[in-house]
């Protein structure tokens, strides 16, 4: 039997549109036959008309409810789960509002602004027996799952180093002029680290931490970072960090340690010509070879597995493409995962366990702390303000 999940969409900005369009794509086009999705309601804080305009634009069915407040959405009895697509400055408050109303939640990345907020959300979800997912979409892609399996199977040996770059190549002054609302706005928790650097951290964690058995996963032993701030607002526009782990993956027979080098920037580009001329955006380097990932780190579309050449033996490079089916953006994979977890009565997904999500927030807290980037109290607060 197909399990159907009824979604509410909270906020109608850029990413909400991509996600909702993906939700509406027939799951069988990606060979998914056990779960399906209904867009049951949409809410915009800019008014009901905005929600209705959004509904028409994404081609959601006419019986989908349109609300002019988030309150109305969280109280809609026809909604099982809410997808939160407000700025991350508001994720803590909006997620709490949904959980207190008894809704399961999928929240856009970063789940919160700091680790203390994330811990509270997971605690409340646990107390209320509700599913809560940190929606770092890249983790749920078939490409990521395949790469994690290759690492776990030991094909590239012991992974000692991962290099990941998520840099957009955007004019920061333009961002500030056009997008005062978000990416470079301190009051909306702007900055490269939380906005896109999280993907470099995601790659480091999903390859060097998540590929270990749960009882072998250990938090980073050391974090070093460097940050360049955008003078007009004080958010980071360019951040580089090294995250060291006391383990390696998939084995640690020699008690070696490993480390990830993460980069992120608005004004620099990982892929300047958007055709891959600069090479891979992620390199996963093991003692028996390496995996190179191509395309933006948040939405890569292919990878290469390159064995280490030993002596005269020939080396066979495997190149694998992972396009998204049915013209989708790849956001349906996290929706399918959420539906399966809710169907099975799970509160958290194994793909992004709560503990790992909090750990990643702690890493970002640490980097921000080292570089003295703090958001206003209204954004960092752990108090529910309603
Ligand atoms: N997974 C991804 O690939 C991806 C990509 C981009 C962004 N994101 C994440 O998704 C979230 C939203 O990003 P976005 O690019 O969609 O942002 P956006 O285009 O600026 O949209 C954010 C929406 O949030 C609502 N909102 C509520 N309070 C707001 C406030 N005080 N200021 C501004 N907007 C407010 C607005 O919708 P209403 O007026 O309808 O309420 C607004 O349209 C961010 O946390 C971001 O990190 C994820």
From TrEMBL:
Domain (GFO/IDH/MocA-like oxidoreductase) ranges: 146-291
Pfam families recorded: GFO_IDH_MocA, GFO_IDH_MocA_C3
Catalytic activity from the UniProt record: D-xylose + NADP(+) = D-xylono-1,5-lactone + NADPH + H(+)
Residue stretches making up the Gfo/Idh/MocA-like oxidoreductase N-terminal domain: 6-130
Source superkingdom: Eukaryota
GO molecular function (one): nucleotide binding
InterPro entries: Gfo/Idh/MocA-like_OxRdtase_N, Gfo/Idh/MocA_domain, GFO_IDH_MocA-like_dom, NAD(P)-bd_dom_sf
Gene3D superfamilies: Dihydrodipicolinate Reductase, domain 2, NAD(P)-binding Rossmann-like Domain
Keywords: Oxidoreductase
EC number: 1.1.1.179
Similarity field: Belongs to the Gfo/Idh/MocA family.
Protein name (database record): D-xylose 1-dehydrogenase (NADP(+), D-xylono-1,5-lactone-forming)
């Amino acid at each position: 039997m197909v399990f159907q999940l009824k979604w509410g969409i909270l906020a109608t900005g850029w990413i909400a549109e991509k996600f909702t369009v993906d939700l509406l794509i027939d799951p069988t086009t990606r060979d998914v036959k056990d779960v399906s999705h209904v867009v049951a309601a949409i809410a915009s804080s800019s008014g009901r008309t905005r929600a209705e305009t959004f509904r028409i634009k994404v081609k959601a069915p006419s019986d989908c409810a349109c609300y002019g407040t988030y309150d109305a959405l969280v109280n809609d009895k026809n909604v099982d789960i809410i997808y939160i697509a407000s700025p991350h400055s508001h994720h803590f408050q909006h997620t709490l509002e949904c959980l207190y109303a008894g809704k399961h939640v999928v929240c856009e990345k970063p789940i919160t602004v700091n680790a203390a907020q994330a811990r509270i959300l997971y605690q409340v979800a646990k107390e209320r027996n509700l599913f809560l997912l940190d929606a770092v979409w890249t983790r749920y892609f078939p490409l990521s799952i395949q790469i994690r399996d290759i690492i776990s199977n030991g094909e590239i040996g012991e992974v000692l180093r991962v290099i990941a770059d998520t840099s957009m190549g955007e004019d920061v002054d333009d961002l500030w002029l056009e997008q005062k609302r978000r990416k470079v706005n301190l009051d909306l928790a702007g900055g490269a680290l939380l906005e896109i650097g999280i993907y470099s951290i995601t790659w480091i964690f999903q390859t060097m931490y998540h590929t270990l058995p749960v009882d072998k996963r250990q938090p980073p032993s050391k974090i070093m970072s460097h940050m360049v701030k955008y003078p007009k607002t004080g958010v980071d526009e360019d951040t580089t960090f090294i995250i060291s782990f006391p383990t390696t993956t998939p084995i640690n027979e020699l008690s070696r340690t490993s480390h990830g080098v993460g980069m992120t920037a608005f004004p620099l580009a990982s892929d300047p010509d958007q055709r891959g001329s600069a090479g891979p955006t992620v390199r996963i380097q093991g003692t028996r070879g390496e995996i190179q990932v191509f395309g933006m780190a948040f939405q890569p579309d292919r990878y290469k597995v390159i064995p280490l050449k030993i002596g005269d033996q020939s080396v066979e490079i495997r190149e694998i493409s992972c396009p998204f089916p049915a013209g989708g953006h790849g956001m349906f994979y996290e929706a399918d995962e959420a539906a399966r977890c809710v169907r099975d009565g799970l509160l958290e997904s194994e793909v992004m366990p709560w503990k790992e999500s909090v750990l990643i927030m702690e890493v970002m807290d640490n980097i921000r702390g080292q570089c003295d980037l703090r958001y206003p109290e209204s954004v960092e607060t752990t108090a529910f303000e309603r």
